[in-house]
Design goal:
By secondary structure, this protein is mainly α. It contains 7 helices and no strands. Helix 2 packs across helix 5 (74-85), helix 3 (45-56) crosses helix 5 (74-85) and helix 4 (63-72) crosses helix 7. The protein is globular, with a radius of gyration of 14 Å. It holds the Pfam family Prolamin_like.
């Protein structure tokens, strides 16, 4: 239970810092609330961080996280990635992130349909 609370706290801090560091480029408050309500609270914090790591780093994702992602839907993935990718330091690599996002989605759908 403590580990879960720690992961939730870590995810919340990451999202809050990302928004606070560059307030001029932050997404609208209603979008942030939508992200929180539709994605972050439904996908485990570990999976949300894994999804972000796959797209913005060179990480891998577990099959169980793929199942969670597909269950929540493409809009959830798109919103989560957009929230992070809209930062000025990341915009220049948008094409790379979009490809990784689509590759991740396709991989997760493939895993979910074969299980």
């Amino acid at each position: 239970m403590t580990k879960c609370n720690s992961q939730i706290t870590t995810l919340f801090i990451i999202l809050a810092l990302a928004c606070a560091v560059v307030p001029a480029f932050s997404i609208e408050e209603s979008e942030a609330k939508s992200l929180w309500d539709t994605c972050v609270v439904k996908i485990t914090p570990k999976c949300a961080l894994d999804i972000i790591a796959v797209v913005f780093e060179n990480a891998t994702i577990s099959d169980s996280c793929c199942h969670e992602l597909v269950q929540e839907g493409k809009v959830c993935q798109d919103t989560l990635i957009k929230y992070i990718a809209d930062r000025p330091t990341l915009i220049s690599q948008e094409t790379q992130y979009l490809k990784k996002k689509y590759d991740l989605w396709n991989r997760c759908v493939s895993i979910s349909t074969t299980a």
